[in-house]
Every structure is written in structure tokens, then in C-alpha cells.
């Protein structure tokens, strides 16, 4: 028995393949609202084949989506290729947190699911903060079982893309932490690499320190997203790194039988 988990973001779609106990593997592809349901269905089928799981039946598909135009594509693909109805977090899957947002419907499903997974990771901490390095960098706060809200900041790649618009010869950078402290760059690649890596690390550390001052009790922190692993090497204020935190949250929703 297989459960498919889809984290649909503005830049990429991460697809997790799980069994009852754990997430077995995951794949990433670009978000493309122009693709048809057949294209998506065949891609998901090929991922199952690559994972040598094509013979097992897909029992459920759980989705976190912040791209509404992708939702009908996902629904049609799952019906045709797996004969299951895709279930969407925050739409027909309740996230079991009290939503403290002023307008609860405005919260992205990804933020709620990540916060729920973070809450589950640290059940003994009064408060938790999840940080997601995606198209935007988001900080989401939970105290007890209440989602409080958070912060939305520039994302690493979107910031780099914005800079490249004004810079004709911007070189490619890898954001590899080859040093634990920033150095004075004597070439453009080093200057960019350390500027972005330690700049976002400092932003994370500074905002976490300020947020912790406003939250109640012990505060645990977890980071996720595309550059979480790279940043973890230079951050000094993070309790856990989970690259697939949203997929983990979706899997928890399925394991706990959460429905509306």
C-alpha cells in the first residue's frame, strides 16, 4: 500500500512516496500550470517505477497546495491513474491546530501543515517555530495547539533572481557553507555566496531571537525547504532540520485519520 504526498509550491512540486510507517523517498519537479493531468499522472507513475513500487496500489493522495490552478490537474491525474480522490489540506483535510489568523482562510496550506508537523516533532515544548526556505522565507509560530501566525520574508532564490535582473554578469553560486564564518570576498562568487548564505542565516537567527521573546514557555525551532541543509551548517539556533517537513505533516494527517 502506497500513499502519495504532494507539496505544491509556487516554484516546485515535491512528491513523496510513503507507506503506512514512513516516507520512503521523494522527488522534485518544477511547478507548471500548463501541463495537463496526463503529463502529471505519467510523471507520478514514472516516479513509482523508479522507486520500484509500481506494483503496489496507491491508496491515498494527500496534497498541500498554494497554487490553485494546479488543483484540478492533480485531481484529474489521481482519478485516472490511481483511481483515488486527492485530498487537499486546509480544504477537505482539517489541520488539527486552532487557527489564530485574523482571516484563517488566508493562511497557506503549506504554512499550516509545516506548523502542524513542527508541533508534532516537539510535543514537550510549549511553543514551536517552523522556518521554511521556499519561494518566500516563512516563519510560523505555534503555542500549545494554536497556530498564531508568523512572518513572510524574501526567499533566497527569489532574492537572487531579483538581483540578477539588475546585474548583467551575475555568476551562478552554490550556497555551499565552506566556512563557518563569513569571509571578505575577493571575487564575485565568494562575495555572493557568503553574502547570501550568512545574510539569510543572520536574518534567521535575528528573527528567531525576537520571536522567541514574544512566545510563551520553551521554544523549539525547526527549519525546512530547499536550502535548509546548507544553512544548518552556519546556524546556531536551530533544534532540527527536516527537508521534507511538509510531506511529513501530510503523512501525519493520513496516519492520524484527519478528515473534515
Which secondary structure elements does this structure contain, and how are they paired or packed?
Elements: E1 2-8, E2 12-18, E3 23-30, H1 37-50, E4 58-65, H2 71-82, E5 86-88, E6 98-99, H3 109-121, E7 127-133, E8 136-143, E9 146-154, H4 156-166, H5 188-214, E10 219-225, H6 228-232, E11 240-241, H7 245-255
Parallel strand pairs: 1-4, 4-5, 6-9, 7-10, 10-11
Antiparallel strand pairs: 1-2, 2-3, 7-8, 8-9
Account of the 3D structure:
Helix content is 36%, strand content 26%. The protein has 260 residues and is an alpha/beta fold. A six-stranded mixed beta sheet has the order 6-9-8-7-10-11, sandwiched between helices. Strands 3-2-1-4-5 form a five-stranded mixed beta sheet, with helices on both faces. Strand 10, helix 6 and strand 11 (240-241) form a beta-alpha-beta unit. Helix 1 (37-50) packs across helix 2 (71-82) and helix 3 crosses helix 7 (245-255). The mean pLDDT is 91.
Amino acid at each position: 500500500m502506497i500513499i502519495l504526498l504532494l507539496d505544491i509550491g509556487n516554484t516546485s512540486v515535491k512528491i513523496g512516496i510513503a507507506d503506512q510507517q514512513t516516507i520512503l523517498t521523494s522527488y522534485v519537479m518544477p511547478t507548471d500550470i500548463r501541463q495537463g493531468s496526463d503529463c502529471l499522472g505519467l510523471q507520478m507513475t514514472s516516479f513509482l517505477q523508479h522507486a520500484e513500487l509500481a506494483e503496489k496500489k496507491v491508496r491515498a493522495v494527500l496534497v498541500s497546495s498554494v497554487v490553485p490552478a494546479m488543483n484540478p490537474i492533480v485531481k484529474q491525474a489521481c482519478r485516472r491513474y490511481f483511481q483515488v480522490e486527492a485530498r487537499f489540506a486546509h480544504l477537505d483535510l482539517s489541520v488539527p491546530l486552532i487557527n489564530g489568523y485574523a482571516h484563517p482562510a488566508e493562511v497557506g496550506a503549506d504554512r499550516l501543515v509545516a506548523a502542524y508537523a513542527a508541533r508534532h516533532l516537539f510535543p514537550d515544548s510549549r511553543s514551536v517555530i517552523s522556518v521554511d526556505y521556499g519561494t518566500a522565507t516563512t516563519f510560523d509560530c505555534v503555542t500549545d495547539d494554536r497556530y498564531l501566525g508568523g512572518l513572510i520574508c524574501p526567499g533566497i532564490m527569489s532574492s537572487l533572481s531579483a538581483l540578477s535582473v539588475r546585474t548583467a554578469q551575475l555568476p551562478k553560486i552554490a550556497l555551499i557553507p565552506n566556512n563557518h564564518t563569513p569571509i571578505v570576498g575577493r571575487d564575485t562568487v565568494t562575495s555572493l555566496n557568503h553574502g547570501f548564505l550568512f545574510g539569510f542565516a543572520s536574518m534567521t537567527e535575528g528573527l528567531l531571537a525576537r520571536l522567541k521573546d514574544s512566545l510563551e514557555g520553551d521554544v523549539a525551532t525547526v527549519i525546512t525547504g530547499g536550502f535548509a541543509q546548507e544553512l544548518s551548517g552556519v546556524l546556531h539556533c536551530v533544534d532540527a532540520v527536516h527537508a521534507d517537513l511538509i510531506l511529513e505533516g501530510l503523512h501525519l494527517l493520513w496516519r492520524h485519520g484527519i478528515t473534515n
